[in-house]
Specification:
It is built from eight helices and eight strands, in the order H-E-H-E-H-H-E-H-E-H-E-E-H-E-H-E. Helix 6 links the parallel strand 4 and strand 5.
Length: 204
Amino acid sequence: MLIEQPSSLLRWLYPHALWRMDPRERAVYLTFDDGPIPEVTPWVLEVLDRYGIKATFFMVGDNIRKHPAEFEMVKARGHRLGNHTYNHLSGHLHGIRSYVRNVERANYYLHTNLFRPPHGWMKWTQYYALLSRYRIVMWDVVTRDYSRRLTAADVLNNVKRYARPGSIITFHDSLKSIDKLRTALPAAIEWLRDENYTFKVFDE
């Protein structure tokens, strides 16, 4: 649970970040990290189209540069865009200036006010520098679809076990995740619908 749901200590470290939306509303917020890539992102979009769902894609700038067609597909379908740095940068390996420059380099493509740090962590100086320009979006449930130790059933069970009203749920449109996503993503959506959840994106 310390991985699937963030600890109170981690939430305390970034007090103004979005970890969970309104708990009084039976809605969830699907998010996808690390794309766009041609092997996964178009398939994710097809699944979302099939169920009539909009999601938020936290994209890596260099992936946008390499795969502009997939980026345009996400935009054309009306999904929300979020910044995930230009090179999937780890905050602890960089100073404030280089980190912020990397984020702004990604935003040359994205033009968004949403930001999620790779690995869900950054230095306080980086956090507060970006907080004046972006809404920092973390998560309430991370599915761990990227883990080699988990099966598609495990990923689905993480959604079933931890999703609750207002949850921000994180999947990944990445090569590490696709073998589990093919089963877990549509099954998770159907389970959430059966549990009477609606699907929302963050306000502009």
